[in-house]
User: What shape does this take?
Amino acid sequence: MNHRAATRCNYRASMTDDPGHAVQMAVERAETSGRRYGVFSCGAGKFRVRRITGRPQSALEIIKPSWSYDANYRATLSDQVRTVASQMVSTIHRGMTR
Assistant: This one.
């Protein structure tokens, strides 16, 4: 029997009736986005997957990605700031040497 075919799942709403499938969805989304995802109970035998921030008390499982979107974004941003700052310094220096 195909386990995935037997699982009732609404991918758009991130709800399923299989806890293992909910964890798998959270892992896939976390690795794709670089953000943390949680598995939550939402009624009798139903589970919901959604992105989380902070430390939610109601999460049954919290999935952390192997990489961080925020860290990558901050690194890229600081590189851009350094580039702009060095361009400004060189422009000022050129103006002073004329």
In short: Residues 1-67 form one domain. The first strand starts at residue 9 and ends at 10. The mean pLDDT is 81.
